User: What shape does this take?
Amino acid sequence: MKVAELHAASWQRLQDWKSRLPHALLLSGVKGLGKLDLALAFAASLLCEDAHSDGTACGACPACQWFLKGNHPDFRLLQPEALRREEKEEGDEEEKKGRGRNADKQEEKSNRSGQEIGIEDVRALDAFLSVGTHRQKMRVILVHPAEAMNRHAANALLKALEEPPSDTLFLLVSNEPMRLLPTLRSRCQQLALSTPDAALAEKFLLEHHLSDAVTWLALAGGAPMLALRLSENAAPWRETFLKFLQQGGQLEVLSAAVTLEKELKAVKGENPLPQMVEWAQKWIIDLTLAAERLPIRFYLAQRAKIMNLSENRRPLLLLRFYRELLQLRRESAHPLNMRLFLEQFFFRYRRLFVE
Ligand SMILES: [Zn+2]
Assistant: This one.
């Protein structure tokens, strides 16, 4: 299933704009909906020289070939250095998707460990914008995520939008549009994406070989790309963690911390603790819902266990623990000592069942 099908209404809206394309479009919505994929599909469809009747790119014409290889001369992708690095680490699966790697010609910068889009990135567009389009069609500049632009970069982009170059579309993608300069926002036509139809999203996930699509979709609040990402990042410690949570008052705090620490330390790359705390938060939300005799939202596969654990739980204590988790969430970004962090977490969790 193409992302255009998953977000059919939004795709139609984009197609309607094609005949009178605005200078700038802002695609917004919560994380993990597939906004970037939709924006890329739209960019490809604008550059394609032989698009399908539903507006999607053909994937075969010379323009599509370049786009898929990431070197279409009329396309630029602005994104923070950290995201580009992440893509490279993903094993350089070049054919995967055209993500405009030719936008990466500037040398490494050190803006806050590469989390920002800086003014150099926007200035680098000058040369791109000053020559005619290569294919006599149009140019697309995709900014993702737009809120990663620092103030200088945002102002430079605003300037470009005040005197918009012809045949050029600025396509901004944002998880947090309210963090953008209001003047920048107001220059854009806006399209807010919502969570896709659940049945469609499940079908989409099944096509991506995600077993247990319903569970992951629930855990991701209905956002399909987030569901995929969560499931990919899940193995193998998630099962262990959930097993310990299910033990409630029987949990052996110290040995649980030892076991989980070993598994967490085997994880390459990103610090897994914030993810762990987030899963715990969702677990507590489900426990609270169950204690109030309401349907749970996230851990559908563990429903019976959650019902069981929620018996006689006092909502007030659950709420107190949830607040403690907010604090732990902050600490989890830079834990001084993983073992202590886990012990503290499990100790507080167990207290819910023995107090
Ligand atoms: Zn094409």
